UniProtKB/TrEMBL annotation, chains A, B:
Domain of life: Eukaryota
Family recorded in the similarity comment: Belongs to the methylenetetrahydrofolate reductase family.
SUPFAM superfamilies: FAD-linked oxidoreductase
Polar residues bias spans: 1-12
EC primary class: oxidoreductase
Name under which the protein is recorded: Methylenetetrahydrofolate reductase (NADPH)
Residue stretches of biased makeup (Basic and acidic residues): 40-54
Domain MTHFR SAM-binding regulatory per the UniProt entry, residue ranges: 346-646
Known EC number: 1.5.1.53
Amino acid sequence: MVNETPHTCSATSSSKSDGGSSSGSESSKDSSRCSTPVLDADRHERLREKMRRRQDSGDKWFSLEFFPPRTANAAVNLISRFDRMGAGGPLFIDVTWHPAGDPGSDKETSSMIIANTAVNYCGLETILHMTCCNQTKDDITGHLQKAKRLGLKNIMALRGDPVGEEWEEEVDGFNHAVDLVKHIRNEFDDYFDICVAGYPKGHPEAESYEADLRHLKEKVFAGADFIITQLFFRSETFLKFMKDCQAIGITCPIIPGIFPIQGYHSLRQLVKLSKLEVPQEIKDVIEPIKDNDAAIRNYGVELAVSMCRELLDSGMVHGLHFYTLNREVATTEVLKRLGIWKEDPRRPLPWAVSAHPKRRVEDVRPIFWASRPKSYIYRTQEWDDFPNGRWGNSSSPAFGELKDYYLFYLKSKSPREELLKMWGEELTGEESVFEVFTCYITGEPNKNGYKVTCMPWNDDPLATETNLLKEQLEKVNRRGILTINSQPNINGKPSTDPVVGWGPSGGYVFQKAYLEFFTSSEIVTALLKVLKKYELRVNYHIVNVKGQNITNAPDLQPNAVTWGIFPGREIIQPTVVDPVSFLSWKDEAFALWIEQWAKLYEEESPSRMIIQYIHDNYYLVNLVDNDFPLENCLWQVVDDTFELLN
Amino acid sequence: MVNETPHTCSATSSSKSDGGSSSGSESSKDSSRCSTPVLDADRHERLREKMRRRQDSGDKWFSLEFFPPRTANAAVNLISRFDRMGAGGPLFIDVTWHPAGDPGSDKETSSMIIANTAVNYCGLETILHMTCCNQTKDDITGHLQKAKRLGLKNIMALRGDPVGEEWEEEVDGFNHAVDLVKHIRNEFDDYFDICVAGYPKGHPEAESYEADLRHLKEKVFAGADFIITQLFFRSETFLKFMKDCQAIGITCPIIPGIFPIQGYHSLRQLVKLSKLEVPQEIKDVIEPIKDNDAAIRNYGVELAVSMCRELLDSGMVHGLHFYTLNREVATTEVLKRLGIWKEDPRRPLPWAVSAHPKRRVEDVRPIFWASRPKSYIYRTQEWDDFPNGRWGNSSSPAFGELKDYYLFYLKSKSPREELLKMWGEELTGEESVFEVFTCYITGEPNKNGYKVTCMPWNDDPLATETNLLKEQLEKVNRRGILTINSQPNINGKPSTDPVVGWGPSGGYVFQKAYLEFFTSSEIVTALLKVLKKYELRVNYHIVNVKGQNITNAPDLQPNAVTWGIFPGREIIQPTVVDPVSFLSWKDEAFALWIEQWAKLYEEESPSRMIIQYIHDNYYLVNLVDNDFPLENCLWQVVDDTFELLN
């Protein structure tokens, strides 16, 4: 955008006003919206267009393949992996389809739900695999409809492995991937981007390599948008395949599938399934070290890096697809060594944008869910639209109920035993709770020697930005101001700032200081006296579990606490303190004391009763310092409160 | 708001979200909107509520009465007077009803249209008088419906003077003001606030003072909200009347009508019409000086000030109503001496807010019409709603056509002869046009010794804010960069700043530097070369009369150039550079060359041809410096351009 050349356009009529933006009708519809400026072209582009744009700009990319895990716990871990590997900037991820595992169901481990999570909760462009053999047309249509409903926009159309040895083609059935491609185009027109599989050595069941190429061409001509290949071991294999494809008129993108060898057994397994032959020179290296996992992985990384370099250097390859086997280390290492792992500290917005088409226009959220973005998306998933980047003209719609809590991705990543070590096998009083909060802030081990790396309100260690406030946070947590969310004030830092920056470059970001905490009613009483002095400089909302609510906000309007100013844009204000949502958040915040902490202990046990007491009697407080250009006064407010109590 | 005490409210249910704001359903509907925070309680309050609030807070107020003028030119002047006297902060103005002058028509001098202009173009709370005798029910309903449609919300219900000497009551007709009050309440429920007239000395036609008080009580009990009295000459008259009203159970506000004596003849005229007797002590002073207008006015001011002081000191009077006779000086003088003229440099928004209920939510406008706000309101009056404070989710609606131009309030205030003196009886070339622009900026007389106090694009002398840029503006206008709109950059000045501040106190306001001008194609060519260096720091739109449009804006999104951050509020961004509206503005801006300037000269005359040449060949340019925290680079851009040309 920086080097954009001026373009000349002739205005047809002054009263004509339907935009004319280049990215189609949906984008021009948005062009005059007030509060939802389009931050990033990516948010509006189809996958095939993104691919084309990256190819045109010469910007190499990668993608990552995952399979659905078997257990709910493994799913929680996989999703953390999506978040971490998503940080490297894959163009997309894809999720395989396991016909035996009820892949279209609502189970937390189904292909459908894992892909849904990737799109909607992790904000990743996602391809859902789908196989067609041995399935009815209605089943397949049902799966596709569900995928569309969930916001999935890309399908990898596969035949799948036939069940039984003696498979026979069904008349009018789905016998080949091309039937699925045709079906998708017939029933869903151009809605989905469709990917198909290519076999650099020919499909093992094909009559010949040439016959297989002809099958591939059929799939493309039936409506596939691009091809991802089966794995291969030599770059020449792929490059020859690509030239052969082009020779018979296949012009769509062909993406090489890369398999970094990560272990002896996984290699054998994969080779067996794919009926590929491992080249002798690789076997010669691996066999002698087959029991040394680290050695094999190092070799696998070396091999993948050099093969990928050859592919990229050929000038014919623009993107690389990685078969991760749900593992992180080898693929990340390869990507970093190739220089295409792009961990960009800059974010389009201060929070992760959902990739669901319906939520594209979302550009403002309440600050309360800052550490629980998946919970926020889950609880607002029923909202029909986000006309102001949030909610409609009338009133904010209802948040999803707290029963939805039990959903796997709202659980803590850590098992009970670990949580007990962090948060205390036995609590002796409110002070032992204060200590847990303090250890989480400082990063120091607790009295039993364990580090507290998560809290019920925050599944991850302290954010870099919060580190700026560490010293003060430690002090106040020790004394029973149990902080769960905070941000410093920022008065116009560049949008490229590595810690607090977000949005396009050339902009400036701002914040009002924010502090949110649980505390006792004694402290609240003193705090209220102190807050009087600060008048409207500090806005506060104070509420207990019963909903008794004390505030000096003159009405129910939201207070913008994060905003950004950009070249050629309207103001973007992605984070607000919204009094109405605060009451929904309050229910969630108090429930976390019980659901995640109290329930670690036996009923009627003293530890459980301590947490229950806090839940029943403490207040949840949020404070905003409106005077963002001055020094944050919230610490002074807290100091004054402690002083008043002494 | 600063001393607002905390209020406790019990949250009933977290999923309930319909606000709970105190000012009724319309207000709570707005409470969760994203981009249209309510700046000012006034914008949502009914007149009677404003009155009550001012009474409760002990904040004295005033209101002003005007009558519709006879000619269109007088109407243009009256509207300028509305703007100037509106600056003093009247609680409302009212416009009298002249049955003989077709008061409900669309004529530019009708009561209806003058009141419409006051509400919608001057942003003043307005009461429209309406009389009922000798009119049919249908006529009256028609007038009321029209008033409602135009956004008028307050009616002064009067009987009016019967036609002819021998007036007889009509059966089932409108014989008394009380009939009109009842009719309004029957047909329009509680939509209008209704005012009725009170007679401190009794109505001249009433049987007795007591009988007249009973009539007044009837009017109030039929649904009137408050009373404005006929003029009187002694404070005791009013205070006795008020006590008598209260004694018989009239509890609504009673506002004394104040008539500052401004001249001998107008006093006689008024006294004759109202059948009042002028006290001897006043006659004794006036008769000897009856030919000395200044002396009479000074005496009138003295008299009014001392009577108003007595009224206010009584503790019974909270507001004063002034019969201005469409004059400015005496009333303004009285108000200033009483200390209730409140010229508040602070504005709720940087532009005058229209008081039309439909436009309440409007909080953003294109910068182009900054000096022509009435034109902007006129050209957008057909827009159905302002869901984002401007326009809907789809695309900006069409601006009204330029033929509407000829409407009286879009004309220049100055007569042709004056314009010729300012802009030149005879132009000798483009340079003489440059000189006119330069003189307007500097305030120095032109070569014929006349000051240039207005331009086709700006009916008023240079704004205080623009004065900040005077030196640079002078330099560039001399060289053919003919500026018509500009603002300096502002990086977080207090919202109470007397020059650039707006909005509630405790906030901070910001601006991006802006410069808009006409210039030749030679300068544009050089400018474009220079602008390349500035990349996205400077956004530009350059267009000629044919609509050839050159821009570096990446899409059709608006660029916010004025915004404010306030305690407990979302960001407010009232002014934008909007590429779509720029093309509508362009038509208007180019048309002004011809309509206001070229047409001053004979057809085919050299002067006219010079303006026509500029109209046909110059470009309209706007520049925004996005880097608001740095020093404004737009002057550097212009300097570089001139240097390149040398």
